[in-house]
Amino acid sequence: MDKTIQQQIETLLAEGFAAAQAAGALPPFELPARIPVQRSRYKAHGDYASPICLGLAKVLRRAPMQIAQTLLQHLPAAPFIGHVEVAPPGYVNFTLDDGWVAQQTPSILQAGERWGDIDTGRGERVQVEFVSANPTGPITVGSARNAVIGDTLASVLQAAGYAVEREYYINDAGSQVRIFGESVLARYAEALGVEGVPFPEKGYRGDYVVELGKQLAAEAGDRYLTMERKEAVRAVARWAVEQMLESIRVDLAAIRVTFDSWFHERWLYERGLFDEVLARLREGGYVVEHDGAVWFRSPDLEKDAVLIRSPQVIPEPSERPTYLASDAAYLWDKLVVRGFRRAIYVWGADHHGDVPRVKAAAKALGLDPDRLVFILYQLVTLLRGGEEVRMSKRRGDFVTLRELVDEVGPDPIRFMMLTRTVDVKLDFDLDLAVEQSDRNPVYYVQYAHTRIAGVLRHAQAQGWPLDAAGDPALLTHPSELALIRKMLELPEIIALVADNLAPHHLTTYATELAALFHAFYRDCRVVDSHAPALTRARLMLVRAAKVVLARVLHLMGMDAPERM
Fold first, then answer.
1. How far apart are CA 69 and CA 85, in angstroms?
2. Mind listing the pLDDT tens digit for each residue in 329-364?
3. What is the rounded CA–CA span in Å between residue 32 and residue 10?
4. Fold of 5-96
5. 192-200: long-range contacts at Cβ-Cβ below 8 A with a sequence spacing of 24 or more?
6. Phi, psi of 563 (to 5 degrees)
7. Helices (H), 23-85
8. Rounded to an integer, what distance in angstroms lies between the CA atom of residue 233 and that of residue 237?
9. Which pLDDT belongs to residue 397?
10. Calpha distance 481→544 (Å, rounded)
11. Buried-most residue among 39, 414, 453, 470 (CB within 10 A)?
């Protein structure tokens, strides 16, 4: 789709103002780069409204209603607009032409699974880095929200014309990996019945570490017990991280999340990228040394931030670089080495303090910090029977994604993780997620698709060819037109989500679309042997609704079921 309806109305408004100025009805002035046009909240106000005249009142020194009335006289005609009116205190309201609306049904069918695609991205390369949970344990419920947000945003950005790459950043450098290696080594020794291998004070506990120890014992015998301890810890850690990464891949695939690339943090150091970035920061005067440590100093930060810890604090050289050190090298790799125009990070809200430091590092490296976009999401609370689920029966201290998938399935996870804005804590009701009723929004939306499929099967069984063309001019019932209007909104929803990185709009749209189909099904008999022309037109509409509902479900990474 070249332009959304909103964008076409923006063009009409711009042309109307230009015509009014050319006629001398309005004085010369400069329009804003983007003319505001929004969906009307109330049907009585039409389909779209623009408050542009309110914003121009001071510029033109005229009342908004006077500006709007003048504009109305110079607006060019457009086939998709049925009615334009001015409403206090100066809104310009647009109502789509019903006949034009009905005629768009074949266009939706023709676009098929690409319906809703726009080209605002124009092929711009964007990276979405998400999940990136430490590879020292299973994926938890909290990371599941990260996964769904990141994956859905990537899908929508692709639909908006961006060239998107999904990446998982593997935190496999630093002390946490060493401690993980020490934990697995201790459990490995236990599995072999060998005493004297200490479990680290802050080690990783849980059944999964015990299982890793047993697996390693079965694969390697006592090989790692004959090595020098430091070498053994490093080797076991590397092996254990690979096992966890494979487990993470499997768990994420269960909710249909995959990645284009997996980037190891240790590469930043092994390939010399951190050294290069540190040298650039030094040259720019952004590095100072005191108390035995290396610090990042920026006028954009209230205080210095540690890049490399003091050897008196951290004896092991490979563990001295901080998260900021890795983040600085990583952003350089994203924006310069690999040339992404924009890098989107999906982080937990507890990382909000890291954002200004990373942006300051980008600026110090001569990069536009606005090319880094951070989405900070809040935590997830699981509820059962109205009570918070605090522990896993099998793990002891956290609930894993795998446990959640086993209990409710991937589709409820994906839908419900998107039902709130990312900056709001999310309550995930386990009972509601599996309830087969209209109270469950997942069931409600997917049942609409199932109902559509059922209507089409029934029609086919009655001998109606599903690919027969219908006359869209016959689609005049209010429920038919309301459904088509909602289907025409999908390109705008894709633009809204892509522009604001706000995927929750998809669940709202899907629910509204499902409700309008259910209303159409209630109000309009689809298959009627006494009205063959109308039947063909309505079957065409049903097929179009199936296309659009499936598209929005697939954008959310969900299944569009034919039967339930």
1. 9
2. 999 999 999 999 999 999 999 999 999 999 999 999
3. 11
4. Gyrase A; domain 2 (3.30.1360)
5. 192/217, 192/221, 192/222, 192/225, 194/222, 194/225, 197/225
6. -140, 150
7. 52-55, 57-60, 64-74
8. 6
9. 67
10. 13
11. 414
Q: Are 560 and 553 in contact (CB under 8 A)?
A: yes
Q: What would the two tokens of residue 522 be?
A: 């209630």
> Is the per-residue pLDDT at 393 higher than 50?
no
E strand or H helix at 560: none
Contacts of 208 (CB under 8 A, 6+ apart): 137, 138, 395
- Residue pair 377/348 in contact by the 8 Å Cβ criterion: yes
488 three-state secondary structure? helix
* Identity of the amino acid at 56: L
CB 303 within 8 A of CB 314: no
DSSP 296-350: E--TTSSS-EEEE--TTT--SGGG-B-HHHHHHHHHHIIIIIS--SEEEEEEEGG
Distance CA 358, CA 476 (A): 56
Helices (H), 75-104: 98-103
CA distance 535 to 384: 46
User: What is the value of pTM for the model shown?
Assistant: 0.94
The contacts found for 331-335 with CB under 8 angstroms, 24 or more apart, are: 331/358, 331/361, 331/362, 331/365, 331/367, 331/372, 332/273, 332/276, 332/277, 332/365, 332/367, 333/263, 333/268, 333/273, 334/127, 334/129, 335/362, 335/367, 335/371, 335/372
| Residue 69 neighbours by CB distance under 10 Å | 15
Confidence of residue 394 (pLDDT cuts 50, 70, 90): very low
CA dist 418 and 380 (Å) reads 11
191 Cβ contact list (under 8 Å, min separation 6): 210, 213, 214, 216, 217
Instruction: Name the nearest CA neighbour of 328 among 298, 290, 291, 292.
Output: 298
Is it the case that residue 487 has pLDDT exceeding 50?
yes
Contact 257/131 with Cβ under 8 angstroms?
Answer: yes
Q: Is 84 strand, coil or helix?
A: strand
φ, ψ at 377 (rounded to 5°):
-105, 150
Residues 46-75: tens digit of each pLDDT: 999 999 999 999 999 999 999 999 999 999
Name every residue whose Cβ is closer than 8 Å to that of residue 356 and which is 6 or more positions away in sequence. 300, 301
Query: Other C-beta atoms within 10 Å of 22: how many?
Result: 11
Same topology between domain 5-96 and domain 438-555: no
Sketch the domain layout of the chain as residue ranges: 5-96, 175-250, 438-555
pLDDT tens track for 94-140? 999 999 999 999 999 999 999 999 999 999 999 999 999 999 999 99
Q: What is the pLDDT of residue 398?
A: 78
Q: What is the pLDDT of residue 344?
A: 98
SS3 content of the chain, % helix, strand, coil (to 5): 50, 15, 35
One-letter amino acid for residue 224 of the chain:
Y
526-546 per-position pLDDT tens digit? 999 999 999 999 999 999 999
Percentage, residues of the chain above pLDDT 90? 94
The candidate with the shortest Cα–Cα distance to 3, out of 75, 92, 80, is 80
